[in-house]
């Protein structure tokens, strides 16, 4: 997932009637939950440490186009909310790749897991409340095109529940030497993955695509 000023998903999911509703739709064509994030070689996920250029923004724009919905925790949502709507409106100066991302993000369904906030006024934003496993599983069931997860702390909790299916990570040629780091909250055991592809970008970033080994 892209960050705000320095860093860089048509939905089949019917919008909820209320912003604080839990997903209630069911579909026989369950979508995948795909975790995507920027990280350095030493696992730092500080959004200021990555390479934010047209190439990385284009990568995340393609991921957003392919997916049916976005999923974030509250902290990530608020970081995105503080900047990208202004870019989409044209109130913030931004290069074409960033503006394309912002306009598409405005239209994309955005789901937020939060126990402390219930109102999410940004366009097409919805609240997942209650049981985390049930809420996210129902979102997956209702989104055949897949759900793109872009929050590191939330990913830790969802990986503990076994809900993440694939990982599309951008590994940046940086050694940050500090945190926060990916999964620093810990998992109950080692997660085995299968490599599906590794694509180097011109800027030195490598796009890694893994599938959870079942």
Helix content: 25-40%
H/E element sequence: EHEHHHEEHEHEEE
Strand percentage: 15-25%
The third-level CATH topology is Dihydrofolate Reductase, subunit A
Number of domains: 1
- The first-level CATH class name: Alpha Beta
What's the assembly state of these chains?
single chain
- Uncertain stretches of 5 or more adjacent residues: 2-28
Task: State the secondary-structure class.
Answer: alpha/beta
GO molecular function: 5-amino-6-(5-phosphoribosylamino)uracil reductase activity
Domain Bacterial bifunctional deaminase-reductase C-terminal: 34-206
Pfam families: RibD_C
Organism: Krasilnikovia cinnamomea
Task: Give a description of the structure.
- The protein contains 6 helices and 8 strands, in the order βαβαααββαβαβββ.
- Helix 1 packs parallel to helix 4 (about 95-105).
- Strands 4-3-2-5-1-6-8-7 form an 8-stranded mixed sheet, with helices on both faces.
- It has about 210 residues and is of the alpha/beta class.
């Amino acid at each position: 997932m892209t960050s705000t000023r320095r860093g860089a998903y048509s939905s089949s999911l019917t919008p909820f009637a209320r912003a604080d509703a839990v997903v209630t739709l069911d579909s026989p064509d369950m979508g995948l939950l795909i975790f995507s994030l920027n990280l350095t070689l030493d696992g730092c996920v500080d959004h200021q440490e990555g390479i934010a250029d047209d190439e990385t923004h284009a990568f995340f724009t393609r991921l957003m186009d392919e997916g049916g919905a976005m999923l974030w925790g509250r902290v990530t949502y608020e970081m995105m909310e503080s900047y990208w709507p202004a870019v989409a409106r044209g109130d913030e100066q931004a290069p074409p790749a960033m503006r394309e991302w912002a306009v598409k993000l405005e239209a994309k369904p955005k789901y937020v897991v939060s126990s402390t906030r219930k109102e999410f006024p940004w366009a097409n934003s919805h609240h997942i409340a209650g049981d985390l496993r049930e809420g996210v599983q129902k979102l997956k069931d209702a989104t055949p095109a897949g759900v793109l997860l872009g929050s590191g702390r939330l990913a830790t909790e969802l990986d503990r529940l076994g809900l993440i299916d694939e990982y599309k990570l951008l590994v940046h040629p940086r050694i940050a030497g500090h945190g926060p780091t990916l999964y620093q909250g810990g998992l109950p055991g080692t997660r085995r993955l299968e490599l599906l592809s590794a694509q180097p970008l011109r800027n030195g970033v490598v796009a890694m695509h893994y599938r959870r080994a079942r």
